[in-house]
Amino acid sequence: MKLVGNTWDEILDEEYRKDYFKRLVLYINKIYKEKVIFPPKSKILRALELTDYNDVKVVILGQDPYHGDGEANGLSFSVSLGIKLPPSLKNIYKELYNDLGIPVANVGTLECWAKEGVLLLNSVLTVEKDKPASHKDIGWETFTDEIIKKINEKDTPVVFILWGNFARSKKKYITNPKHYIIESPHPSPFSANNGFFGSKPFSKTNEFLKKNNLKEINWTVK
Q1: What pTM, to 2 d.p., does this model score?
Q2: Could you tell me where the DSSP H helices lie in 12-102?
Q3: Does residue 79 sit in helix, strand or coil?
Q4: Catalytic, out of 13, 52, 55, 64
Q5: Phi, psi of 165 (to 5 degrees)
Q6: DSSP class of residue 55?
Q7: In this structure, are residues 59 and 113 in contact, taking their beta carbons and an 8 Å threshold?
Q8: Would you call 183 helix, strand, or coil by DSSP?
Q9: Can you say how many angstroms the Cα of residue 76 is from the centroid of all Cα atoms in its chain?
Q10: Active site residue 55
């Protein structure tokens, strides 16, 4: 089955064939006709489309998509062009400036990161308008947990950036000693001052990549 159009289709072929995934696809097709669901259907697997399995150097794990009009674009923490920056993303940019001196961007799309090898993966890939976590437990977590396990199997070192308790709960799937885990509180205004600010995830990531003879990430948002 060709859902993504790159190496991910081979990596996840067995998952696509499982009964839970077939049920999930049927449910998603049905609910997109009945309710307002984000992101646009064509962008549900955007994170995988933009960052091929072979190119993954960093994983930034989110919980579920933004639930406001026009915000979600298939990439964790990212919003579409022309959309006001959400508070968590503002705090990510603030930490990026404090960490690497990169000027705070006024656009919220993180496609440039995805193309650098940063997989911006939400654990739940869809959400109903104005109802956060409304698609929790419909099957997405089983699918995205498998994605994390597949990345864990990679021979090349990968950095996993886990912000907040939800993302940290996925640490149990990251067992390969080649990989590097960076964890801190979530960039949300409720927790950013409790250890997210000052955690320096961007410089730590690049130091690790450099040490392993991998090209560093250009974190400039453009």
Answers
A1: 0.97
A2: 13-16, 19-34, 46-50, 87-100
A3: strand
A4: 64
A5: -65, -35
A6: G
A7: no
A8: strand
A9: 4
A10: no
- Of 189, 130, 133, 178, which is closest to residue 155 (Cα–Cα)? 178
Q: What is the pLDDT of residues 42-98, one digit of tens each?
A: 999 999 999 999 999 999 999 999 999 999 999 999 999 999 999 999 999 999 999
Q: At what angle do helices 140-152 and 19-34 cross, to 10 degrees?
A: 130
Q: How far apart are CA 159 and CA 138, in angstroms?
A: 28
Beta bridge partners of 72: 79
Report the distance separating Cα 166 and Cα 62, nearest Å.
8
Q: Is residue 39 reached through a cis peptide bond, with omega within 30 degrees of 0 on the bond before it? A: yes
Residue indicated by tokens 């927790």? 191
Which of 84, 88, 62 lies closest to 75, judged by CA?
A: 62
Task: Give, for 163, the enclosing helix (H) or strand (E).
Answer: strand 159-163
Query: How is residue 10 written in tokens?
Result: 């081979």
Q: Which residues contact 58 (CB under 8 A, 6 or more apart)?
A: 117, 118, 119, 158, 159, 160, 161, 205, 217
AA identity, residue 67: H
